[in-house]
Amino acid sequence: MDRQALRVWLDQRLTGPSGLADYKRLLDAGWDELRQRKLVEVVPRASVDRWIEAHLVPDRVAELVHPWVTVALRDVVEDARKDTQPVGRWIPDAAKTRIERLVMRPGAVDPGLIRAMFKDKANEAMLADTLTATIKDFSTMIPKLILSLVPKGPFGVLGGASNIVTKLVEEVERRLEPEIHRFVAGGTKRALERAADFAVAHADDATSVEQRRNLLRFLWAQSGQMHVKPIDEIAFHEIELIGRDIARHIAERPETKVMIKTAVDRFYTRYDAGTVGQVLDAHHLTIRPPIEAIAESTWPALQTLHLLPIVQAWREALIDEILALMNAPVDSHNAGRS
Fold this sequence. Notes:
Layout: H1 3-15, H2 17-36, H3 39-42, H4 45-55, H5 58-81, H6 93-103, H7 111-119, H8 121-139, H9 141-149, E1 152-153, E2 156-157, H10 161-201, H11 206-221, H12 224-228, H13 233-252, H14 254-271, H15 276-282, H16 291-306, H17 309-326, H18 332-337
Antiparallel strand pairs: 1-2
Helix pairs in contact: 1-2, 1-17, 2-16, 4-14, 5-13, 7-10, 8-10, 9-10
């Protein structure tokens, strides 16, 4: 067989229909064989450690954020901008019921979180404005109360009492304004603290539980447009920077490797003697992979890989070795015996 004939045969065998058939058969049989192998044989602990060391590099980890934000997240957001349907349609009723049960459980909201919400300066400003307006509205009733206490004759307020009452009302109104502001300035914080105490004490009352459920139902009833409305180009840019900063920071922190090592140690301690199949079964991953679909979807990539110059050079080297073996002289000792 000459070089060209061998080259054509290899190309057809590796990338043609028979190659795809072999690929499917090997994947199918390989999966069954893989399940029978010990986990530590298939994925040795040392190889996991090397993988972690190679990938837990700050710049590498930060770089992984870029495609997720600039491509994946952007596409999701752009699709959501066109979505006018309630997002709750993606959650089946049974799952909604379970989620509602979780948020309605006693103690679902931490008291510290409740108190933090009431300590916010924005709440102080809102309450101060509300209290001021409410007290001012109430204060307009005071002159009427004063006037109602003044003796009246058949033709209205008696004698000189009219001037006295008018001056008294004006003085009360003049003094009320600064008193309202002084009261609100000192009372807003106390009112918020009392409100926080009340909210914590009644966090699991029927009305509070109902509020949590109603908030969930409100979010589910809104469209995708509503949920992504604040995300514009500036937000995209900031999200990417935030993601890269957090990723790099996590990779730089010494305890990150410690946490990962602890998790890997725990995993291998638990499944050190188990097979791959036993590990998958323990995690309820019992459905057989769609081998044929996997083979057909990855086959084009393998065909393309075969055409790369470096692979073509490997193929030529392999052909050289095969031809050398085919053309090698027959061993004289064996030739004499034949």
